[in-house]
Amino acid sequence: MDTHIIVELAYLVSAIMFVLGLKRMQSPATARTGNMLGATAMLIAIVTTVVDNQIISWGGIIAGFLIGGTFGAVASYAVKMTAMPQMVGLFNGFGGGASLLVAVVEYLRHAGSVGTGTYGISIMVTVLIGAVTLSGSMIAFLKLNEWMTGNPITYPLQKTLNALLFLGAIAAAVFAMGVGQFNPDTMFWILVAISLVLGVTLTIPIGGADMPVVISLLNSYSGLAGAAAGFVIMNMVLIIAGALVGASGIILTMIMCKGMNRSLTNVMFGAFGGTANIDKSQIGKRPVKRADAEAVAAELGYVHSVIIVPGYGLAVAQAQHELRKVGDLLEQRGVDVRYAVHPVAGRMPGHMNVLLAEADVPYDKLFDLDEINDDFADTDAVLIVGANDVCNPAARDPNSVIAGMPILDVDKARRTIVMKRSLSPGFAGIDNDLFYNDNNLMFFGDAKQSMSDLVKALRELA
Amino acid sequence: MGDVAQTAAQPSVAMPALMIALYVFVLATMTGREVITKVPPTLHTPLMSGSNAISGISIVGALVVAGHMEGTLQLVLGVAAVAMGTINVVGGFLVTDRMLAMFKKR
Questions:
Q1: B88–A95 C-beta distance less than 8 A
Q2: Which of A45, A94, A420, B17 is geometrically suited to a Cys-Cys bond with B84, CB 3.0 to 4.6 A?
Q3: Given A60, A79, A236, which is nearest B79 (Cβ)?
Q4: Which sign, positive or negative, has the C-alpha torsion A423, A428, A429, A433?
Q5: Are both B96 and B65 inside the same structural domain?
Q6: Which of A389, A409, A411, A431 is catalytic?
Q7: Please, where are the H alpha helices in A234-319?
Q8: Which of A22, A234, A365 has the CB atom closest to B21's CB atom?
Q9: Which ipTM score applies to this complex?
């Protein structure tokens, strides 16, 4: 058999293993082996490539492996679970960057003569998507790491500017393929520059609660950039792996949008607002019932069923471990304890589940919105820790800014206890009627301190 | 492709490479859709970091271009491409494994 066929068959095996690896992500029991299958597929693809190509300059490749491998390994072991969104954001950027550079080097090999066929077009598309992914991810990283403001940055004619940049990029791409009287090389570098700027201008107007959507979308772009690079070098495993990631990112993007009841266009182009003309002066002015740790322990310790609703405030306070102790103590008392996780509870899809898994909460105790929402009506007490908008009954009011957003129906339970610092509003900027309900108790304080007080109080219960 | 088209037993017009690549892309996207929609929300973060590692597949492209370098600029860009792809692959798979190891059943 000629080597070309063997190489292609090795790539095919790699592609099949990527699909099977992702399939094993369908259950927490098989997911870890699925990830290892994916890693093995990657190794096969890399070894095949190295063997197949007459590598002249090993020095550069080994340097790249060493630099990248060290940085990647150190980062993956050092990162805190709360910081996972910015780390994934950063890695998305590197994926896009690698694809961008592949296209740039391919262009340089045939500078000025890439032509207007598949090859030329694929290079230009890879540059555009790869560069947008690279610079957009860097902005997302800076925002999530709080090295720049997490709020949307808006200015007049923002959409017009973005549209002009996009059209400029298309024009530069066409000229770089040798159409017209311009110098293709100059036009190519202009394309690179405009695409990098476009990544920035598309990402800065998005912020706050919308970051999970951005991270998912950039994840999709990093895959699409890889697939586009596959068209450049006509490599099927690149196209397949890239397409899988592209599909995955888009699906997660749609799930995040649904979790906030917003359309993708609205997230990308309509900076979240609409609260400017709402009267905020009355927020938190109505009387609430307060409870201390002992009172909360008594409310939770003598009932049959408790659902815990964790929000991002819990993660910010690093109170997951204390919360799990509360859950364990309640279970030891014979209380049925479950956790309800809203799709946008964390700062990326599934983030809260990872944070709870880190605190040793078993995954079969975690339920998503659709699975648990009907059960609140039969639940004795709900403990809401550091969550706000995701259980705001205002979502049922068609006139509210969060109208139609899927919420956890916590107010249907016999008793709700909200653990929070103050009555301040969440990302949506509106008051939460839940706090003032007759059957609600406010348990004010820092989440970590309050949960450890609650642990103490539960231990002292008879 | 060209050789195949000239063989008498083959159809007179072979499918251009672009079309084959497009078929592959579209079918892989559909496969991805089918597989990913069944991933439970609890695993969405590891799914994202794991698929992120897979998008490091562009390292294959980086190796191809870094292997036959001409000129300093190409060399620097090629090394950078390999480095970025490696970060993506190594960091992505390792961090996903670290997360998945934490998911335990009672």
A1: yes
A2: A94
A3: A60
A4: negative
A5: yes
A6: A389
A7: 236-259, 264-269, 293-301, 312-316
A8: A234
A9: 0.92
Indicate the pTM of the whole model. Answer: 0.92
Q: A432, A437, A435, A436: which is closest to A397 by C-alpha?
A: A432
Do B52 and B22 belong together in one domain? no
Q: Is A309 helix (H, G, I), strand (E, B) or coil?
A: strand
Cα atoms in the 13 Å half-sphere on the side-chain side of A230: 29
Same domain, B28 and B54: no
Instruction: Provide, for chain A, the percentages of residues in helix, strand and coil under a 3-state DSSP scheme, each rounded to the nearest 5.
Output: 65, 5, 30
A52 catalytic residue (yes or no): no
Report how far apart, in Å, the C-alpha atoms of B3 and of each of A52, A234, B6, B8, B21 are. 21, 17, 5, 10, 18
Residues B58 and B30 in one domain: no
Alpha-carbon gap: B71 to the closest alpha carbon of chain A (Å) = 10
Number of domains in chain B: 2
Same domain for B65 and B99, yes or no, is yes
User: Are B34 and B71 members of one domain?
Assistant: no
Return the residue of A nearest to B101 by Cα. A32
CB pairs under 8 A between A and B: 392
Smallest Cβ–Cβ distance between A101 and the set B33, B54, B80 belongs to B80
Give the integer Cα–Cα distance in Å for A74 and A266: 37
For A218-273, write each residue's pLDDT tens digit: 999 999 999 999 999 999 999 999 999 999 999 999 999 998 888 888 887 765 54
